[in-house]
Amino acid sequence: MMPREKLLQFGADSLSDHELLAIFLRTGTRGMHVLKLSQSLLDEFGSLYHLMSATQSDFCQKLGLGITKYTQLKAVIELSYRYLQVKMTQDSSLTSPNLTHHYLASRLADKEREIFLVIFLNNQNNVIYTEEMFVGTYNAVEVHPREIVRKALKCNAVALILAHNHPSGAAEPSEADRIMTKQIEQVCNLVDIRIIDHFVIGKGEYVSFAERGWL
User: Helices 97-108 and 67-90 sit at what angle, rounded to 10 degrees?
Assistant: First the structure.
């Protein structure tokens, strides 16, 4: 069954990475079917993530790709980010860690510096506001817990989701990450603001403090 027909019958989540890419590519090259081309590209780049985050020069020099496909892909990525942004703010409540992870990955995974982001929530877990509050270097970011609390009080938030990225690609939290999270939690407890989770976003992976039982 071809990818388009499979998608229509079983849904988009039934498709493999190379089948989804084949739908995007639409056609193969002389002597190479689009499914074979898409698998070849994934093998060459290493993953769908690395293909989608490739530089323009690396992307366009590959057989079957080019500037038109590059601009289309960047548009698809931006559309996905905007869709998730709207879904995050308009859903009745933020109850899906998977949705939260996808939104945060779309926003932070490709950053070249560490960014510390905070999602501010009301008592129904509705998103009030999202802000990239602190910007650091390639491997560190300085976070000020009192600034987070001040912003939370200003927008009447009662709960927070914290997130930051690791530009190196590995999502495993450092001991400094755990200490920082505990410091933020302690300051927030003074004014009855809950920390629901802290996500560390790597390249194609993430770690949730709540899932680890650290919050």
Answer: 140
